[in-house]
């Protein structure tokens, strides 16, 4: 098959018009038409662009006998990998009981401390002193005594 027919077939297989292909390649529609009629051949630069647009190598555009390479067969290989699985260590029931007992005792001591603290805070005596009493006392000395001491 000649180049002109190959270009036309590739273009039509992809659903492109001459105008759309020309736009992709930044050439005029007439240039694409001339390639497809065989009046002129595309330059090396345009061949490279055509191969990008059609997603084929340049050989596929130029050669009649070009056959796409066969895809290599995928082979799966099974590899056994040793995996170490940790064996769970069981804690004897006596240790679990001791831990639970220790936690309960700590919680009980904490609750007792909070209760004692709250009780002492709530039951404290009301030892408030009025302002008059504070004004009348100065470091344990009555103000009447202070009034009698002459100040130079």
What labels would you give this structure?
152 residues; mainly alpha; 2 strands
Topology summary:
Layout: H1 3-13, H2 18-25, H3 29-37, H4 44-54, H5 58-62, H6 93-122, H7 131-136, E1 137-138, E2 141-142, H8 143-148
Antiparallel strand pairs: 1-2
Fold and architecture overview:
This protein is mainly alpha-helical and 152 residues long. 57% of the residues lie in helices and 3% in strands. The chain has eight helices and two strands; from the N terminus they run H-H-H-H-H-H-H-E-E-H. It has helices spanning 3-13, 18-25, 29-37, 44-54, 58-62, 93-122, 131-136, 143-148, and strands at residues 137-138, 141-142. The chain has a two-stranded antiparallel ribbon. The radius of gyration is 51 Å and the shape is elongated.
Question: Would you kindly provide a brief summary of this structure?
Answer:
By secondary structure, the protein is mainly alpha-helical.
Q: How would a textbook summarize the main sheet?
A: 2 strands, antiparallel
Instruction: Give the averaged pLDDT, no decimals.
Output: 81
Mind telling me the C-alpha Rg?
Answer: 51 Å
Please count the helical segments. Answer: 8
């Amino acid at each position: 098959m000649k180049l002109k027919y190959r270009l036309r077939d590739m273009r039509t297989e992809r659903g492109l018009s001459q105008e759309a292909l020309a736009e992709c390649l930044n050439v005029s529609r007439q240039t694409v038409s001339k390639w497809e009629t065989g009046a002129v051949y595309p330059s090396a630069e345009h061949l490279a662009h055509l191969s990008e647009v059609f997603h084929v190598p340049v050989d596929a555009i130029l050669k009649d006998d070009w056959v796409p390479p066969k895809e290599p067969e995928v082979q799966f290989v099974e590899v056994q990998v040793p995996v170490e699985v940790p064996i769970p260590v069981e804690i004897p029931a006596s240790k679990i009981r001791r831990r639970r007992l220790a936690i309960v005792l700590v919680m009980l001591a904490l609750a007792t401390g909070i209760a004692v603290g709250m009780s002492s805070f709530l039951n404290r005596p009301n030892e408030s002193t009025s302002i008059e009493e504070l004004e009348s006392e100065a470091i344990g000395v009555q103000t009447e005594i202070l009034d009698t001491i002459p100040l130079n």
